[in-house]
Every structure is written in C-alpha cells, then in structure tokens.
Amino acid sequence: MLYICEFTWFPGTTRADVAARVVRQHDAGANHPERIKGWYNLVGGGAGFLVVDYDDPHELTGFLQPYMDLMSFDVRAITENAYDATVAQSRETAAQAG
Q1: Is the pLDDT at 61 greater than 80, yes or no?
Q2: How many CB atoms lie under 10 A from the CB of residue 53?
Q3: Partners of 4 in the β-ladder
Q4: Which structural domain, as residue segments, surrounds residue 17?
Q5: What is residue 93's predicted lDDT score, i.e. its pLDDT?
Q6: What's one Pfam family here (predicted)?
Q7: Could you tell me the CATH number of the domain that includes residue 47?
Q8: Its pTM surpasses 0.85
C-alpha cells in the first residue's frame, strides 16, 4: 500500500540534525530505500513529503519513529488514479447522477 508521509521540522531542528539522522539510519540499514518511491522537499526547506510502499502500517511506523524527535508527520494511505480511466469513470458517475 502506498502512503504519503508529509513532514515538518520542529522549530530548532537544523539541516545538520536531519542529515546526521538520515546517514545514521541509512548506515544501520533502517531507511529501506527500496520502499521509498519518492522523496520531495518543499522550497524553502524544513518540510516535504515521502511516498512509501508498506504492506504493514506497523512497519511504516517503525521506519518513521527514529525521526519523530526532529519532525512531525502527517501520514495518509493513497491510491493512484490513471487519468483516462478516472475521467471515464467520472463521466459514468456524472451521467448516472443525471
């Protein structure tokens, strides 16, 4: 299942704090880059989001917990919509609604 994990650094968190944690978790084999489908930072820094693939939400929590003293997370399950199929389904739904 795909999840979007929006993050915002806590006040006082520095770039060096986050960099050190990312490297520590990577070196420990705990970041699971094969599960990270996208990693985006917002312009200006201090926030962004990850798109990750986990079957077990408890494993996702375990992945995020080592960062929770540096940043907050808003996590939501997501599904992908193919544009053409979504438009076709929307046409059908709109037609049925009258």
Answers
A1: yes
A2: 13
A3: 51, 76
A4: 2-97
A5: 96
A6: DUF3303
A7: 3.30.70.1060
A8: yes
